[in-house]
């Protein structure tokens, strides 16, 4: 079984590659390294069933042959991070829509199964919580670049649905809710690794807005096996499926728990949205998934809680930075974990 993974050098993609190799399957990664890194693939490079191509697949004629020889496509390549989206909305739209269209155009005639990763951002300003896959969506005006990512991913979803209906393409859309864990970087505005990095440096932990907005964070090691299972579940083809945790936490509480685990004396700082991003920036107050469909289709249920997520994220950053403080993560209601015990997907 040969799996083609676009964006495979990214945070989620690299964990997916490791999991597929562990299952005894072959993996071919295509990534232009615009946001990914070959360092993420250190556990894969050199494996006899692993290969990678550093290239922009939207401009590379060899990508068509890669699609023809694979058995399964995981399309993860996309613009990432709110900060990048706000500062370069044109890149966001073109990257997301053009990339998905090319993958589907090559896959459809050959009926290659495609898993498309989408995002909870697609729900926009919806207020019905928890979010269900068949809920209506509501966006702000097109004059606000903040919504370009959500709209571009919604177009991606429409494209896969169209190919599924008109070309009988076997494909599934997965809306991810704040997937986090080791290897996620803070560079693109990701809140949890940003807080961890700030706490390790003594603070302050910078909270955008008033910190009352809530999110649900799922460990990448819970998410990745779900992606593989959904891709091989015919009952999921032609559908949208939420994947995430239902453990809801406010951003200010997240900051407090991270500083309590890493540096209790670190201060908190608050930054208005219009200074963090752009004037008139709108955020979602709550973002909680209904995971009932995923549970029905593949028995999905996250097993790693927020404390475990924080511990693994801290462990990764400490190991990467070579910090002398390598003993344990403490301050999490007695929870303690060695910084050297992180394991790949079993």
Describe the structure.
By secondary structure, this protein is of the alpha/beta class. The protein has two domains: 2-180 and 217-243, NAD(P)-binding Rossmann-like Domain (Rossmann fold, 3-Layer(aba) Sandwich), CATH 3.40.50.720; 191-215 and 247-286 and 304-337, UDP-galactose 4-epimerase, domain 1, CATH 3.90.25.10. It is built from eleven helices and 15 strands. The strands form five sheets. It has a seven-stranded parallel sheet with strand order 3-2-1-4-5-6-11, with helices on both faces. Helix 6 (191-200) packs parallel to helix 8 (251-262) and helix 8 crosses helix 11. The longest helix is centred in the N-terminal third of the chain and has 22 residues, at 89-110. The relative contact order is 0.13.
Produce the secondary structure layout.
Elements: E1 2-6, H1 11-22, E2 26-31, E3 50-54, H2 63-69, E4 72-75, H3 82-87, H4 89-110, E5 114-119, H5 148-167, E6 171-176, E7 179-180, H6 191-200, E8 205-208, E9 214-216, E10 218-219, H7 220-231, E11 240-243, E12 248-250, H8 251-262, E13 268-271, H9 273-276, H10 292-298, H11 306-321, E14 329-332, E15 335-337
Parallel strand pairs: 1-2, 1-4, 2-3, 4-5, 5-6, 6-11, 7-10, 8-13
Antiparallel strand pairs: 9-12, 14-15
Helix pairs in contact: 1-7, 4-5, 6-8, 6-11, 8-11
């Amino acid at each position: 079984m040969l799996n083609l993974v676009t964006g495979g050098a990214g945070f989620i993609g690299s964990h997916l590659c490791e999991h597929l190799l562990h299952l005894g399957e072959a993996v071919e990664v295509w990534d232009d390294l615009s946001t990914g890194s070959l360092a993420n693939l250190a556990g894969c490079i050199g494996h006899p069933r692993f290969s990678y191509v550093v290239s922009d697949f939207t401009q590379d004629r060899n990508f068509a042959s890669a699609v023809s020889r694979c058995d399964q496509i995981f399309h993860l390549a996309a613009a990432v991070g709110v900060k990048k989206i706000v500062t370069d909305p044109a890149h966001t739209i073109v990257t997301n829509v053009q990339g998905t269209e090319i993958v589907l155009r090559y896959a459809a005639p050959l009926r290659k199964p495609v898993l498309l990763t989408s995002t909870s951002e697609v729900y926009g300003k919806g207020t019905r919580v928890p979010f269900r896959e068949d809920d209506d969506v509501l966006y702000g005006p097109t004059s606000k670049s903040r919504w370009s990512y959500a709209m571009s991913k919604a177009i991606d979803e429409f494209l896969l649905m169209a190919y599924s209906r008109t070309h009988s393409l076997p494909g599934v859309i997965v809306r991810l809710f704040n997937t986090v864990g080791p290897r996620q970087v803070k560079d693109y505005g990701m809140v949890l690794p940003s807080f961890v990095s700030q706490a390790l440096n003594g603070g302050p932990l910078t909270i955008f807005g008033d910190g009352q907005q809530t999110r649900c964070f799922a460990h990448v090691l819970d998410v990745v096996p779900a992606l593989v299972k959904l891709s091989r579940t015919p009952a999921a083809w032609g559908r949208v499926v939420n994947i995430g945790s239902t453990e809801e936490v406010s951003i200010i509480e997240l900051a407090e728990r991270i500083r309590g685990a890493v540096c209790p004396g670190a201060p908190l700082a608050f930054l208005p949205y219009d200074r963090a991003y752009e004037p008139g920036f709108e955020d979602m107050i709550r973002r909680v998934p209904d995971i009932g469909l995923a549970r029905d289709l593949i028995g999905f249920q996250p097993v790693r809680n927020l404390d475990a997520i924080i511990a693994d994220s801290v462990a990764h950053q400490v190991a990467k930075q070579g910090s002398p403080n390598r003993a344990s993560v403490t301050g999490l209601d007695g929870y303690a974990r060695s910084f050297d015990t992180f394991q790949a997907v079993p």
